[in-house]
Structures are given as structure tokens and as C-alpha cells.
Write a structure and sequence with these properties.
NUDIX_hydrolase-like_dom_sf; hydrolase activity; globular; 3 helices; single chain; alpha+beta; NUDIX_hydrolase_dom; 11 strands; 3-stranded antiparallel beta sheet; 5-stranded mixed beta sheet
Length: 208
């Protein structure tokens, strides 16, 4: 048996969108189950996201601390953002987020991993990149606003982040998955064996 996720779509008898927000919406589908019965499933419709594990030459990861109102916490995170335009190239979006949130650019980009954040209640798909060969970006800094205006920025050794993840002190999904994937990749075939930055992403198809 091959352990691999596969696409599949069950019959939908009806669908409606009871709420539509600025970036996301809530959708209600009436889905036919294998026994022929139909049940309703409510979920958030999300454009998708990218995140960046930016690793410097000293073995530190660039992280930022930001207030997240739904969970009433300031969380340490890696740079991340929405795929604002349908079909947007995720690499370009990741490069933009790294510049806007940290004023940093990277020369070497790889795909670290792809995840569905909460597949039981949201269709958000996230591509987490590994960025290396970092340097300060040129030009003026991006003008942040709202929660981002209060962000703190730090570079933290991978081992310290790993300890915080396993100790239950760090909770952001992309940081946790990104750090664990980074450690696993380094102890396996190595970072250069990761997928190229423009590897296909069926969850959010894009033009290279």
C-alpha cells in the first residue's frame, strides 16, 4: 500500500455561502456519504498561504512575534502571508512576504513542505519554503500596519526553536511544521535534496 494522499471529491447535492468576509468565506455543502445519506459540512474557504523558514549562515531562523486575536496570544511565527491573487506564483508571494515582514531577500529557495492547516474545517493549503543565502533587501522598508505594526523580529538557533516546539512553548502551525521539517530534512537526505522552489502544487495550481 502506498502511503500518499490522493484527490477525491464526493457528490455535493447543494451548496451555499452564508458568510463572506474580506479574504475568506464560510461555505455549507450537503455532501453524500458512502451509504447514500447526505450530511451538511460547514468550512472556511481560504485562498491559500505561503510561509518562509529563512535560515541564515549562522544556523538561525528568522522569526517574528505577532498578536493573533482569535487565540488571544502573541505568537512567534515565520514570515507568512496569503495568496492574494488566484493562481499567484507561491514563490513570488513568499519572496514578497519575506521582504515586507523582514526586509530580507534570499538567493536559494526550496520547498520544505506542503500542508493543509485544518482540513476538517478549512480548505487552507500552505506551502512552506526554505530560504537560504540571506541578505538585507534594498530600498525602503515596507510600511506595516494593524497587528504587524507591533511585530518583533529575531533570529533564533534551530535547536532553540525545536526545544520550544517540543516543550509546548511555540504553537504557530507554520513555525512548528517548518522547524520539524527542517530538522528532518537535515538529518535525512540533506537540504539540497528538497524539492525545487517551483515544484508543482496541486492544492493551489499556479503559473511558473
Amino acid at each position: 500500500m502506498t502511503i500518499e494522499d490522493t484527490p477525491e471529491e464526493w457528490e455535493i447535492r447543494s451548496t451555499e455561502i452564508p458568510f463572506r468576509g474580506k479574504k475568506t468565506a464560510v461555505r455549507t455543502d450537503e455532501v453524500v456519504m458512502p451509504d447514500g445519506t447526505a450530511v451538511t459540512r460547514d468550512y472556511q474557504v481560504h485562498p491559500g498561504s505561503v510561509a518562509v523558514v529563512a535560515l541564515d549562515d549562522a544556523g538561525r531562523v528568522l522569526v517574528l512575534r505577532q498578536y493573533r486575536h482569535p487565540v488571544r496570544h502573541k505568537l512567534w511565527e515565520v514570515p507568512a502571508g496569503l495568496l492574494d491573487v488566484p493562481g499567484e506564483n507561491p514563490l513570488h508571494a513568499a519572496q514578497r512576504e519575506l521582504y515586507e515582514e523582514a526586509h530580507v531577500k534570499a538567493e536559494d529557495w526550496r520547498v520544505l513542505t506542503d500542508v493543509y492547516t485544518t482540513p476538517g474545517g478549512c480548505d487552507e493549503a500552505v506551502r512552506i519554503f526554505l530560504a537560504r543565502e540571506l541578505s538585507e533587501a534594498e530600498g525602503e522598508r515596507f510600511q506595516v500596519e494593524d497587528e504587524e505594526a507591533d511585530m518583533e523580529l529575531a533570529r533564533v538557533p534551530v535547536a532553540e526553536l525545536l526545544r520550544g516546539v517540543l516543550a509546548g512553548e511555540l504553537h504557530n502551525n507554520c513555525l512548528v511544521v517548518g522547524v520539524l521539517s527542517l530538522v528532518a530534512a537535515r538529518s535525512g537526505d540533506g537540504l539540497d535534496a528538497l524539492r525545487p522552489a517551483l515544484a508543482p502544487w496541486p492544492a493551489r495550481p499556479f503559473d511558473a
